Fold this sequence. Notes:
The protein is mainly alpha-helical. It has helices at 9-42, 47-54, 58-67, 71-86. It has four helices and no strands. The longest helix has 34 residues, at 9-42. It is elongated and about 75 Å long.
Amino acid sequence: MSTTPTYDPAVDKPVEDMLKRAAARAEKSLAERNAAILTAFAEGASLREIGQAANMTHTAIKYIVDKAPNAEAVRAAREAQKARAKEPQKQ
């Protein structure tokens, strides 16, 4: 007698569909989280501040920032934000 599990497409199809939907939701959620991280970084928040808010380590945040497809643009936006913050306020 074989102990190899059998695959019943009629039963497993709903489970497979449920897993695919869950994976799609997780991917969307991850993309939204990463976008929020990049926005916060571009606006001048530190890696540690972002990490604390996202309940992640600052090294994980740095990895996300460094690996972003638009990492150079994000860093340029951050530098522009810093330069604006240093300018004297006009009244």
